[in-house]
Amino acid sequence: MTIIVAFCVATIFGTGLYMILGRELKGIAMGLFLLAHAANLSIIAMSGSPITADGIKAPPVIGHDVAPADALASTVDPLPQALILTAIVIGFGVMGFLLSLIVVTGRTSHTLNIAELARHERQSPFPEPEEGKPRVNAHEHE
Amino acid sequence: MTDPLNNLVILLCAIPLAAGLLSIPFTRRPLVARTIGLVSFTTNFLLALSLLVLIQPGEDVLVNNLGGWPTAYAINLVFDSLSGLMVTVAGVVALGVYLHSFTSLTPDVERRYFHALMQMLMFGANLCFLTGDLFNLFVAFEIALMASYALICIGATRVQMHQAYKYVVLNLLASTVFVMAAGMTYGIFGTLNIADISRIVHEIQAAGDPMPTGFTALGVLLLFVFGAKGAFFPLWFWLPDTYYTSPIAVTALFSGLLTKIGVYCIMRTFPLVFAVGDGFADWTIWLLAVSAAFTMFYAVLGAVAQSGIRRILSIHIISQIGYMIFAIVVMSSYALAGCALFVVHNMVVKSSLFLCCGIIEQHRGTDHLDHLGGLLRKHTYVAVLFFIAAMSLVGLPPLSGFFGKLVIIHAGWEDWWWLAVFALLTSPLTLLSMLKIWSYGFWNPEVRAMPGHVAPTAAKLRPAYIGTSLLVAVALCLGLGAQPVFRVAQTAGRQLDDPTAYITAVLGPTRPDLIITPPPDAGVVDVAATDEHHHE
């Protein structure tokens, strides 16, 4: 069981890393989503195999035919699942932010390609007199 | 260690959180929002300072088990000398920066939940410093980061939008690895409480057994996470591009708080847990040492090459981080005390330099050195503030930077002399880059003002001057009154080097089976004696 999950983690992580190394911001975001899934899966794998000699462990619900004294012997460990739940919730918020950031970036610079963004940066002086930062940083950013 | 004091620790997190939520309805009434923010930051700072002073005589460790759960099951907040020092200084930095922001923010930016985000950043940072639980540390990181993501994009100018994704993507990657590392820690040790893990690790070491499989890998994973947040050598690339784009108050707060959180987390977790055992000493430490050398030296070269004040200062942040990594590499109680002292100094001085830059921008409309000049004659007070802060950064003897560097280099001279040489070489280059700002900006003949720039009124500039003066005064106090601060730092270093006090305080005297026996030489340690007290 653990080895299967481990292979899943490796595959997802590899795919995610590959996508992060691309040049399209949307692809990078998708890669990051995948990495988060891989991380959550790896926590599941770390919490131990649910399959024992006596069969499959019960879900960690108190009062589910389990004496609390030896709860861990017959049920799976609930704490990793709580960790994953927290991580998913936080990840959800951050992903929402990242996607909206990408939308705004696309609107202001009309491209989502990182190479294009970098070229914009080198060529155009930054037109923002209201920030008090004149065309200083354009030519020095190589 | 009385109960009320332990319970007060939660206020350090609760006050910024409450103030942040409270200021959300007042986004269109800046005066109310500012008052709420000021009250919150001031109480936060004063509370942290008084707690820090109160725990000093007995070298106490305040522990608050949230929700009254039993020890080692509860998520706990730990206020010891190290975290207390960090929270206090972070509090005063935030206060100074917040005052300055009244001048430098445009109303448009201020309306976009600036006040709430500042409070949330403070909440996250304080929780990072105080928490004694590895997964809670991840949550605290995320709170601080989420606020910082929003702050780094606040105003949404084009240059910010161009750069922000680097910051967000890198931190997301680091957070993902952090979740994995936390999960693996639980898988290996069955607990996430840092004190409990420390106890287990020390027991394994005392029994002479090998560390669990994957222990070193876990250390390296966390090193990557904290290194990415702290801008260590190969992972620093996001910082110079992103920090200079935000409004100056935001940049100043980031420079004071965020990278230092990464350093603090290494100081907290590595001496207690991950540096125990042979794996760390064998090769992880070399990774860190090389990173320290590159961080110090490369970054300062980068700083000398820049020609905007913001960019010079941004790249300087990285260079100063190198000194802290150096101290972590040495990892004796003396070096860790030096590290704490240096972090404290750096938080204050770096932020005050950025705030000076903010005042210059207000006066002249630009931070580019080619368009500046004559500031010394025309704005003498800014020049004085900048000079004190810059010389503190360089480390001129009566000022604060000197003492931190002295202790770190002194501690590392025996075993890591080549790193000490790099540290000494970095100092003149730091001086050079500061002199570059000084001679171009302050000494050069005055140049024509930027077209379209309107000089601000004196009343508008007053908060900026008050905030910057506050931080520079604190920097001066840290230099002239280095002795008491260093005493606190020494306590911190001692508690990190010998975690018995920390473990006992967290796991409690009620469970003697959980307490490791102290090593025989863990008595009162003075400066000369600690010098030979290196980890192997």
What does this structure look like?
The complex is a heterodimer of chains A (142) and B (536). Chain A has 142 residues and is mainly alpha-helical. Helix content of chain A is 61%, strand content 3%. Chain A has helices at 2-20, 25-46, 71-74, 78-109, 114-123; strands at 51-52, 55-56. The longest helix of chain A has 32 residues, at 78-109. Chain A is elongated. Chain B is an all-alpha fold. Chain B has helices spanning 3-8, 11-23, 30-55, 81-104, 107-111, 114-130, 134-152, 158-189, 194-207, 215-230, 238-243, 248-274, 278-305, 309-330, 333-364, 375-378, 380-394, 400-412, 417-443, 458-480, 482-497, 500-507, 527-531, and strands spanning 62-65, 76-79. In chain B, α13 packs parallel to α19. The radius of gyration of chain B is 22 Å and the shape is globular. Chains A and B meet through α2, α4 and α5 of A and α7 and α8 of B.
Say how many strands of chain B there are.
2
Instruction: Give the proportion of residues in helices of chain B.
Output: over 70%
Distance between the first and last residues' Cα of chain B: 34 Å
Number of helices of chain A: 5
Give the radius of gyration of chain A. 23 Å
- Termini Cα gap of chain A: 50 Å
State the major sheet of chain A: 2 strands, antiparallel
| Secondary structure: helix percent of chain A | 55-70%
Overall geometry of chain A comes to elongated
Overall, the morphology of chain B is globular
The poorly predicted ranges of chain A are: 124-142
- Indicate the proportion of strand residues of chain B: under 5%
Structural class of chain B: mainly alpha
Order of helices and strands of chain A: HHEEHHH
Task: Write out the strand line-up for the largest beta sheet of chain A, numbering strands in chain order.
Answer: 1-2
The largest contact between protein chains, plus residue counts on each side, is: A-B, 47 and 53 residues
Beta-strand content bin of chain A:
under 5%
Mean pLDDT of chain A: 79
Beta strands of chain A, count: 2
Tell me the structural class of chain A: mainly alpha
Total helices of chain B: the number is 23
